[in-house]
Design a protein that fits this description.
Layout: H1 6-24, E1 28-45, E2 58-70, E3 73-87, H2 94-99, E4 102-117, E5 130-142, E6 146-148, E7 153-155, E8 169-182, E9 187-198, E10 241-252, E11 258-261
Antiparallel strand pairs: 1-2, 1-10, 1-11, 2-3, 3-4, 4-5, 5-8, 6-7, 8-9, 9-10
Length: 263
C-alpha cells in the first residue's frame, strides 16, 4: 500500500481515538481485563506486490491482553506472528517479470494500541453487546527477508544486496478497523483488518538500484541479461507495508465488573 494518504489516515485515527475516548471517561467507568487469541492471515504490499491486497496471504496467529476503562475505550497489548512472501513471476508487469525477484519473511510483532468503540460496548453486557471499532498505536516487528536463488532460501540482510544497512528490528504503526460482539457473558468474538506502517523499504530487501560494484546472484536474478548496475531495482519513494486480518476470541478475566456511572 504505497498510499500517500496513509500517513494522514494514521494521524486521523490516532487523534480521533484519543480525543473521543477522553471525552467518554466522564460518562461510564468500569475496569475489565481480557485475554484473547487471534487467527487469520498476513500479507504484504511493496516492490514485489504493489497493489494487490490479500494476494500471497499466509497463515497468522497471535495473543493479546486488553484493559477496558469505559464503554468506549480500551488499551490492547498484543503479540502477532505471521509470514509474508511475493514473487515477480506472478506479476502482470513485464518489468517485474524481467526483474525475477522473490522473497519471504517471518514477522514477530509486539504492539500497544488504543481502541475506540463507535457505540457503547462491554463484554458480557446484555444491551451493549456489539460494536464497530477503530484502533491505532505503536509496535516493533522483527523481519528477516530471504530469497530463493536456486539453491534454497538464503537470508539477505547480511548480504547487503543494494549496499545498504538495515536492522531486522523495525518500528511499526499498527492501525485499522474491526467489529466485535458478545457470545456469552464472558466470551466475545471480533473480526479485524489492520495495516502496519513501516519506516523501512527493505521488508522485501528491494528498494533502490542495482549496485555499481559487488553485484551478487542475490542482487541480480534478472532474465535476458537485465539488471544493469546503477539502474532502478525498486521504488525508494514508498515504504513497505504488511497487514494482519482475521478473527479473534476474547475472554473476560474478572468475574466482578467494577462499575461507576456518572451523569
Amino acid at each position: 500500500m504505497p498510499f500517500n494518504f496513509a500517513k494522514i489516515l494514521v494521524v486521523i485515527l490516532l487523534s480521533f481515538t484519543f480525543f473521543t475516548s477522553t471525552a467518554q471517561t466522564r460518562k461510564r467507568h468500569f475496569k475489565q481485563k481480557e485475554i484473547g487469541f487471534f487467527g487469520g492471515a498476513s500479507y504484504y504490499i511493496g516492490d514485489l506486490n504493489q497493489r494487490s491486497h490479500f494476494k500471497f496471504s499466509q497463515p497468522a496467529f497471535g495473543a493479546l491482553f486488553r484493559y477496558s476503562t469505559n464503554y468506549r475505550f480500551a488499551f490492547k497489548f498484543a503479540f502477532n506472528y505471521g509470514n509474508i512472501n511475493a514473487t515477480d513471476k506472478s506479476s502482470n508487469e513485464p518489468d517485474q517479470i524481467e526483474r525475477n525477484l522473490n522473497f519471504k519473511s517471518r514477522l514477530y510483532e509486539f504492539s500497544a494500541v488504543s481502541e475506540f468503540n463507535f457505540v457503547e460496548y462491554r463484554l458480557g453486557h446484555e444491551k451493549h453487546y456489539r460494536c464497530m471499532y477503530i484502533f491505532g498505536g505503536i509496535g516493533t516487528t522483527y523481519i528477516n527477508p530471504k530469497s530463493n536463488i536456486g539453491e534454497g532460501y538464503e537470508e539477505l540482510q547480511n548480504k547487503k544486496t543494494e549496499g545498504a544497512n538495515y536492522s531486522k528490528i523495525q518500528l511499526c504503526l499498527p492501525f485499522g478497523v474491526g467489529f466485535k460482539w458478545n457470545v456469552t457473558e464472558r466470551v466475545g468474538l471480533n473480526v479485524e483488518w489492520g495495516p502496519r506502517k513501516l519506516f523501512t523499504d527493505y521488508l522485501d530487501d528491494v528498494s533502490s538500484s542495482y549496485p555499481m560494484i559487488g553485484g551478487t546472484a542475490q542482487t541480480n536474478q534478472s532474465l535476458n541479461g537485465g539488471g544493469t548496475p546503477g539502474t532502478m531495482r525498486g521504488n525508494p519513494r514508498s515504504k513497505d507495508w504488511y497487514f494482519f486480518y482475521g478473527i479473534g476470541l476474547n475472554i473476560r478475566l474478572n468475574n466482578k465488573i467494577i462499575c461507576n456511572q456518572m451523569n
